[in-house]
Specification:
single chain; mainly alpha; two-stranded parallel ribbon; 4 strands; 53% helix; globular
Length: 344
Protein backbone atom coordinates (compact mmCIF):
# COMPACT_ATOMS: atom_id res chain seq x y z
CA UNK A 1 0.00 0.00 0.00
CA UNK A 2 1.29 3.44 -0.85
CA UNK A 3 1.87 5.72 2.15
CA UNK A 4 -0.15 8.84 2.79
CA UNK A 5 2.25 10.52 5.20
CA UNK A 6 5.93 10.82 5.95
CA UNK A 7 7.67 8.18 8.06
CA UNK A 8 7.90 9.48 11.61
CA UNK A 9 11.01 8.72 13.68
CA UNK A 10 11.74 9.22 17.36
CA UNK A 11 15.46 8.74 16.74
CA UNK A 12 17.79 11.72 16.42
CA UNK A 13 19.22 12.47 13.00
CA UNK A 14 22.17 10.14 12.35
CA UNK A 15 24.97 12.52 11.49
CA UNK A 16 26.10 13.91 14.86
CA UNK A 17 26.37 10.42 16.30
CA UNK A 18 28.42 9.17 13.36
CA UNK A 19 30.62 12.29 13.43
CA UNK A 20 31.58 11.56 17.03
CA UNK A 21 32.31 7.92 16.23
CA UNK A 22 34.47 8.79 13.24
CA UNK A 23 36.43 11.46 15.10
CA UNK A 24 37.12 9.04 17.92
CA UNK A 25 38.48 6.43 15.49
CA UNK A 26 40.02 8.81 12.92
CA UNK A 27 40.99 12.08 14.64
CA UNK A 28 43.18 13.01 11.66
CA UNK A 29 40.03 13.89 9.71
CA UNK A 30 40.05 17.20 11.59
CA UNK A 31 42.98 18.14 9.35
CA UNK A 32 40.65 18.22 6.35
CA UNK A 33 38.65 21.13 7.79
CA UNK A 34 39.29 24.39 5.98
CA UNK A 35 38.58 26.54 2.93
CA UNK A 36 39.15 26.08 -0.79
CA UNK A 37 39.78 29.55 -2.17
CA UNK A 38 40.32 28.08 -5.65
CA UNK A 39 36.56 27.51 -5.86
CA UNK A 40 36.20 31.16 -6.86
CA UNK A 41 38.01 30.38 -10.12
CA UNK A 42 35.53 27.59 -10.81
CA UNK A 43 32.71 30.10 -10.29
CA UNK A 44 34.28 32.60 -12.68
CA UNK A 45 34.83 29.87 -15.29
CA UNK A 46 31.26 28.54 -15.07
CA UNK A 47 29.68 32.01 -15.20
CA UNK A 48 31.81 32.75 -18.27
CA UNK A 49 30.71 29.47 -19.89
CA UNK A 50 27.04 30.35 -19.40
CA UNK A 51 27.49 33.86 -20.80
CA UNK A 52 29.38 32.43 -23.78
CA UNK A 53 26.69 29.83 -24.46
CA UNK A 54 23.98 32.50 -24.13
CA UNK A 55 25.84 34.56 -26.75
CA UNK A 56 26.34 31.51 -28.98
CA UNK A 57 22.64 30.57 -29.14
CA UNK A 58 21.28 34.13 -29.15
CA UNK A 59 20.54 33.99 -32.88
CA UNK A 60 19.97 30.24 -33.21
CA UNK A 61 16.75 28.28 -33.60
CA UNK A 62 14.78 27.16 -30.57
CA UNK A 63 16.04 23.59 -31.11
CA UNK A 64 19.56 24.86 -30.55
CA UNK A 65 18.52 26.76 -27.45
CA UNK A 66 16.70 23.85 -25.83
CA UNK A 67 19.42 21.37 -26.79
CA UNK A 68 22.24 23.57 -25.50
CA UNK A 69 20.38 24.20 -22.25
CA UNK A 70 19.70 20.49 -21.68
CA UNK A 71 23.09 19.13 -22.74
CA UNK A 72 25.43 21.86 -21.49
CA UNK A 73 23.77 24.70 -19.61
CA UNK A 74 22.10 22.38 -17.11
CA UNK A 75 25.44 20.91 -16.07
CA UNK A 76 27.03 24.35 -15.68
CA UNK A 77 24.12 25.63 -13.61
CA UNK A 78 24.12 22.52 -11.46
CA UNK A 79 27.82 23.02 -10.77
CA UNK A 80 27.09 26.64 -9.87
CA UNK A 81 24.51 25.40 -7.36
CA UNK A 82 27.27 23.39 -5.71
CA UNK A 83 29.44 26.50 -5.54
CA UNK A 84 26.57 28.41 -3.91
CA UNK A 85 26.38 25.54 -1.46
CA UNK A 86 30.11 25.88 -0.73
CA UNK A 87 29.70 29.61 -0.16
CA UNK A 88 26.74 28.93 2.15
CA UNK A 89 28.99 26.83 4.39
CA UNK A 90 31.76 29.47 4.20
CA UNK A 91 34.08 27.00 2.52
CA UNK A 92 35.57 29.39 -0.06
CA UNK A 93 36.75 32.42 1.93
CA UNK A 94 37.18 33.09 5.64
CA UNK A 95 34.79 36.04 5.82
CA UNK A 96 31.01 35.90 5.62
CA UNK A 97 30.78 38.85 3.23
CA UNK A 98 33.25 37.39 0.73
CA UNK A 99 31.44 34.04 0.72
CA UNK A 100 28.06 35.67 0.19
CA UNK A 101 29.40 37.74 -2.70
CA UNK A 102 30.85 34.57 -4.23
CA UNK A 103 27.47 32.88 -3.88
CA UNK A 104 25.68 35.82 -5.53
CA UNK A 105 28.20 35.77 -8.39
CA UNK A 106 27.53 32.06 -8.93
CA UNK A 107 23.79 32.77 -8.85
CA UNK A 108 23.80 35.39 -11.64
CA UNK A 109 23.44 33.08 -14.69
CA UNK A 110 20.67 31.16 -12.91
CA UNK A 111 18.32 34.11 -13.52
CA UNK A 112 16.34 33.68 -10.29
CA UNK A 113 17.92 35.22 -7.15
CA UNK A 114 18.31 32.45 -4.59
CA UNK A 115 21.86 32.35 -3.20
CA UNK A 116 21.19 34.22 0.07
CA UNK A 117 17.79 32.64 0.65
CA UNK A 118 19.36 29.22 0.10
CA UNK A 119 21.90 30.00 2.81
CA UNK A 120 19.14 30.71 5.34
CA UNK A 121 17.14 27.60 4.61
CA UNK A 122 20.02 25.22 4.03
CA UNK A 123 21.59 26.00 7.41
CA UNK A 124 18.33 24.96 9.06
CA UNK A 125 18.25 21.76 6.99
CA UNK A 126 21.58 20.70 8.48
CA UNK A 127 20.73 21.59 12.04
CA UNK A 128 17.12 20.41 12.05
CA UNK A 129 17.04 17.58 9.52
CA UNK A 130 13.56 16.12 9.38
CA UNK A 131 11.88 18.84 11.47
CA UNK A 132 9.06 19.76 9.10
CA UNK A 133 8.61 23.33 10.27
CA UNK A 134 12.34 24.05 9.90
CA UNK A 135 13.64 21.83 7.10
CA UNK A 136 12.82 23.27 3.66
CA UNK A 137 14.22 20.17 1.99
CA UNK A 138 11.06 18.33 3.05
CA UNK A 139 8.04 18.67 0.74
CA UNK A 140 4.85 20.31 1.91
CA UNK A 141 2.10 17.84 2.75
CA UNK A 142 -0.19 19.36 0.12
CA UNK A 143 2.70 19.03 -2.35
CA UNK A 144 3.05 15.30 -1.64
CA UNK A 145 -0.71 14.78 -1.91
CA UNK A 146 -0.90 16.71 -5.19
CA UNK A 147 1.97 14.86 -6.87
CA UNK A 148 0.92 11.44 -5.54
CA UNK A 149 2.93 8.44 -6.76
CA UNK A 150 2.09 8.54 -10.47
CA UNK A 151 4.52 9.16 -13.32
CA UNK A 152 2.79 12.28 -14.62
CA UNK A 153 2.68 13.91 -11.20
CA UNK A 154 6.36 13.22 -10.54
CA UNK A 155 7.32 14.51 -14.00
CA UNK A 156 5.44 17.75 -13.35
CA UNK A 157 7.13 18.01 -9.94
CA UNK A 158 10.56 17.66 -11.53
CA UNK A 159 9.72 20.17 -14.25
CA UNK A 160 8.59 22.84 -11.79
CA UNK A 161 10.78 21.82 -8.85
CA UNK A 162 12.04 25.39 -8.12
CA UNK A 163 8.44 26.63 -7.84
CA UNK A 164 7.49 23.88 -5.42
CA UNK A 165 10.53 24.76 -3.33
CA UNK A 166 9.45 28.40 -3.26
CA UNK A 167 6.07 27.43 -1.82
CA UNK A 168 7.80 25.70 1.13
CA UNK A 169 9.08 29.02 2.46
CA UNK A 170 5.75 29.95 4.01
CA UNK A 171 5.83 27.11 6.54
CA UNK A 172 9.29 27.98 7.92
CA UNK A 173 8.22 30.62 10.41
CA UNK A 174 11.53 30.90 12.27
CA UNK A 175 13.50 32.21 9.28
CA UNK A 176 13.65 35.88 8.31
CA UNK A 177 12.25 36.00 4.74
CA UNK A 178 13.81 39.30 3.69
CA UNK A 179 16.74 41.52 4.56
CA UNK A 180 19.38 43.71 2.92
CA UNK A 181 21.41 40.78 1.60
CA UNK A 182 18.39 39.22 -0.08
CA UNK A 183 17.54 42.61 -1.59
CA UNK A 184 21.09 42.90 -2.93
CA UNK A 185 20.84 39.39 -4.41
CA UNK A 186 17.64 40.42 -6.23
CA UNK A 187 19.17 43.65 -7.53
CA UNK A 188 22.28 41.85 -8.79
CA UNK A 189 20.30 39.18 -10.64
CA UNK A 190 17.84 41.64 -12.15
CA UNK A 191 20.71 43.82 -13.39
CA UNK A 192 22.52 40.80 -14.86
CA UNK A 193 19.45 39.47 -16.67
CA UNK A 194 18.60 42.96 -17.96
CA UNK A 195 22.14 43.31 -19.32
CA UNK A 196 21.95 39.92 -21.07
CA UNK A 197 18.57 40.82 -22.59
CA UNK A 198 19.84 44.22 -23.76
CA UNK A 199 23.17 42.98 -25.14
CA UNK A 200 22.27 39.50 -26.42
CA UNK A 201 18.50 39.43 -26.72
CA UNK A 202 15.57 37.41 -25.34
CA UNK A 203 16.77 34.05 -26.67
CA UNK A 204 19.90 34.34 -24.56
CA UNK A 205 17.74 34.88 -21.47
CA UNK A 206 15.55 31.95 -22.53
CA UNK A 207 18.65 29.75 -22.70
CA UNK A 208 19.69 30.75 -19.18
CA UNK A 209 16.17 30.18 -17.86
CA UNK A 210 15.89 26.74 -19.44
CA UNK A 211 19.36 25.82 -18.16
CA UNK A 212 18.20 26.69 -14.65
CA UNK A 213 15.03 24.59 -14.78
CA UNK A 214 16.79 21.61 -16.37
CA UNK A 215 19.61 21.76 -13.81
CA UNK A 216 17.25 21.10 -10.91
CA UNK A 217 14.34 19.37 -12.57
CA UNK A 218 13.29 17.16 -15.47
CA UNK A 219 16.82 16.01 -16.25
CA UNK A 220 19.00 13.13 -15.03
CA UNK A 221 20.67 15.68 -12.76
CA UNK A 222 17.31 15.86 -10.99
CA UNK A 223 18.11 12.46 -9.56
CA UNK A 224 20.38 14.24 -7.10
CA UNK A 225 17.39 15.62 -5.18
CA UNK A 226 16.05 12.09 -4.76
CA UNK A 227 19.47 10.66 -3.94
CA UNK A 228 20.13 12.80 -0.91
CA UNK A 229 17.30 11.93 1.49
CA UNK A 230 14.54 9.87 -0.14
CA UNK A 231 13.97 6.44 1.39
CA UNK A 232 15.03 4.00 -1.30
CA UNK A 233 16.63 1.45 1.03
CA UNK A 234 14.79 0.74 4.25
CA UNK A 235 14.90 3.61 6.73
CA UNK A 236 18.36 4.91 5.88
CA UNK A 237 17.88 8.66 5.98
CA UNK A 238 20.79 10.09 3.95
CA UNK A 239 22.50 8.65 0.88
CA UNK A 240 25.66 9.36 -1.05
CA UNK A 241 26.26 9.09 -4.78
CA UNK A 242 29.61 7.72 -5.98
CA UNK A 243 29.24 8.03 -9.73
CA UNK A 244 31.03 9.74 -12.62
CA UNK A 245 28.97 12.95 -12.53
CA UNK A 246 30.72 13.91 -9.29
CA UNK A 247 33.56 15.03 -11.53
CA UNK A 248 31.41 17.77 -13.06
CA UNK A 249 29.46 18.45 -9.85
CA UNK A 250 32.28 19.10 -7.38
CA UNK A 251 31.71 15.90 -5.40
CA UNK A 252 28.24 16.98 -4.31
CA UNK A 253 27.27 13.30 -4.31
CA UNK A 254 29.28 12.72 -1.13
CA UNK A 255 26.24 13.67 0.88
CA UNK A 256 26.64 11.54 3.99
CA UNK A 257 30.22 12.74 4.25
CA UNK A 258 29.10 16.35 3.88
CA UNK A 259 26.39 16.09 6.53
CA UNK A 260 28.84 14.45 8.90
CA UNK A 261 31.53 17.08 8.25
CA UNK A 262 30.00 20.26 6.80
CA UNK A 263 33.20 22.22 7.48
CA UNK A 264 35.20 20.19 4.95
CA UNK A 265 35.28 21.59 1.37
CA UNK A 266 34.18 19.66 -1.70
CA UNK A 267 37.65 18.63 -2.87
CA UNK A 268 38.41 16.74 0.36
CA UNK A 269 35.13 14.86 0.81
CA UNK A 270 36.44 11.73 -0.99
CA UNK A 271 39.23 11.62 1.59
CA UNK A 272 36.61 11.47 4.37
CA UNK A 273 35.12 8.38 2.79
CA UNK A 274 38.54 6.84 2.21
CA UNK A 275 39.76 7.42 5.76
CA UNK A 276 36.53 6.26 7.40
CA UNK A 277 35.52 3.66 4.83
CA UNK A 278 34.13 1.27 7.44
CA UNK A 279 31.40 3.83 8.19
CA UNK A 280 30.48 4.77 4.61
CA UNK A 281 30.93 1.62 2.56
CA UNK A 282 28.45 -0.18 4.81
CA UNK A 283 25.76 2.39 3.99
CA UNK A 284 23.60 2.02 0.90
CA UNK A 285 24.75 4.41 -1.83
CA UNK A 286 23.88 5.28 -5.41
CA UNK A 287 26.08 4.97 -8.48
CA UNK A 288 23.78 6.52 -11.10
CA UNK A 289 21.63 9.65 -10.91
CA UNK A 290 20.07 8.72 -14.25
CA UNK A 291 18.97 5.29 -13.03
CA UNK A 292 17.56 6.80 -9.84
CA UNK A 293 15.79 9.54 -11.81
CA UNK A 294 13.86 6.99 -13.89
CA UNK A 295 13.29 4.69 -10.92
CA UNK A 296 11.62 7.53 -9.01
CA UNK A 297 9.46 8.42 -12.01
CA UNK A 298 8.16 4.89 -12.59
CA UNK A 299 8.32 3.20 -9.17
CA UNK A 300 4.97 3.73 -7.42
CA UNK A 301 6.50 2.64 -4.13
CA UNK A 302 8.49 5.90 -4.17
CA UNK A 303 6.80 9.24 -3.72
CA UNK A 304 7.28 12.57 -1.98
CA UNK A 305 6.08 10.84 1.19
CA UNK A 306 9.26 8.72 1.15
CA UNK A 307 10.98 10.89 3.75
CA UNK A 308 11.67 10.73 7.49
CA UNK A 309 10.31 13.43 9.79
CA UNK A 310 10.86 13.96 13.51
CA UNK A 311 9.92 16.34 16.30
CA UNK A 312 13.11 16.13 18.36
CA UNK A 313 15.34 19.15 17.77
CA UNK A 314 18.20 17.62 19.73
CA UNK A 315 20.66 19.80 21.62
CA UNK A 316 21.14 22.41 18.93
CA UNK A 317 20.81 26.11 19.63
CA UNK A 318 18.52 28.10 17.38
CA UNK A 319 20.04 30.69 15.09
CA UNK A 320 19.57 34.25 16.30
CA UNK A 321 17.84 35.64 13.22
CA UNK A 322 18.65 39.19 14.28
CA UNK A 323 22.32 38.23 13.87
CA UNK A 324 22.48 36.30 10.59
CA UNK A 325 26.23 35.73 10.87
CA UNK A 326 25.77 33.54 13.95
CA UNK A 327 26.11 29.86 13.05
CA UNK A 328 24.52 26.81 14.62
CA UNK A 329 26.84 24.80 16.82
CA UNK A 330 26.30 21.38 18.32
CA UNK A 331 26.69 21.79 22.05
CA UNK A 332 27.06 18.15 22.98
CA UNK A 333 30.84 18.38 22.73
CA UNK A 334 32.58 21.48 24.05
CA UNK A 335 36.04 20.94 22.57
CA UNK A 336 37.10 23.51 20.00
CA UNK A 337 37.97 20.95 17.36
CA UNK A 338 34.63 19.17 17.53
CA UNK A 339 32.76 22.47 17.48
CA UNK A 340 34.62 23.29 14.26
CA UNK A 341 33.62 19.98 12.74
CA UNK A 342 29.97 20.37 13.70
CA UNK A 343 29.62 24.04 12.87
CA UNK A 344 27.22 24.40 10.01
Amino acid sequence: MRPNDFLFSNAPEPHRIRTKQILKQHPQIRNLIGKNVYSIFAILFLVSIQVFLAWFVADKSWWWIVGAAYLAGAFADHALFVMIHEATHKLIFKGTVANRLAGILANLPQVFPSAIAFERYHIKHHSFQGIHELDADLPNRWEAKLINNYFIGKAIWFLFYPLFQAFRVARLKEIKPFDGWIAFNWIANIAFVAAIWYLLGPKAVAFLTLSFFFSVGLHPLGGRWIQEHYLVHGEQETYSYYGPLNKVAFNVGYHNEHHDFPSIPWNKLPQVRKQASEHYDTLYYHTSWTKLFFRFLFDRELSLWSRIVRKNRGKVKLTDESKPDVELVVVENKSKSDEMVNTI
